[in-house]
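Q: What does the predicted 3D structure of Glutaminyl-peptide cyclotransferase look like?
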Amino acid sequence: MRLMRYALFLAALALAACGSADDTDAAPRAETAVATPAPADAQAANTASDPAEPADIPIYGYSIVNTYPHDQGAFTQGLLWKDGHLYESTGRNGESTVRKVDLETGEVLQRHDVPFEYFGEGLVDWNGQLINLTWRAGKAFVLDQETFEVEGEFTYPGEGWGITSNGAQLIMSDGSDRLRFLDPETFEEVSSLRVTARGQPVGRLNELEWIEGEIWANVWQSNAIVRIDPATGGVTGVIDLTGLSQMAGIGPSRDFVLNGIAWDKDGGRLFVTGKYWPALFEIELAERPQPGQ
């Protein structure tokens, strides 16, 4: 039975790739995980299709280290930790912002309001600037990190969802199973990467964070964060955050969706939250036993 549950959980990630990138933030996002029919052979489902990928992808649970207040009016799109503060981008037309936030109190210390016609998406810091994506406008705004003044903009094809950086390039998601690697000075695409779990595509990749040489991504319409090898695109681990929204004190809702990953590399702290959540969590991970162990 545990083997079957394991196979179903990982297969659900592959099924997410079948969803359309058109059905995104403008439509309410479901809190529940994506369901999938049971594989005919659960044992076969645990065998890697690609020899470069592990036969059994580790699944991690979590424990809550600290709970912090979070603005329940924030439709969280991007989240990052920089110089002792959280930086957050929010979405929806007329509600989109870029913010500097105090971790302990949740107070918004600084704020930039995105023009009404733009639906804000992911956020990344680069060379003293903050780059904020928009959803369908094909435009990213570049803000001075200190003043929040708009210093420039870039354009890109397709949709913008999440964005992070590996220190040399920007990495962007568009709601599919594909990640784009961009030149941070010109915003031109340098390369792209397809994300897979046991050879099957993993789509609806949303908010991104670069953590210890891996790309971590929220999977929209699931309670999962996937850990991605940036060299191969293979999923190296799945973090199951089922139950965390209830810990935030909210019930099931089509709007209250898990989204937002921030990594404090100096302190080794991992923060997560969700859209319209009244709480932000610092969590620790613990790997669950593999099937058969």
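A (community wiki): The structure tokens above were generated from the sequence. The chain is about 10% helix and 45% strand. Residues 2-16 form the longest helix (15 residues).
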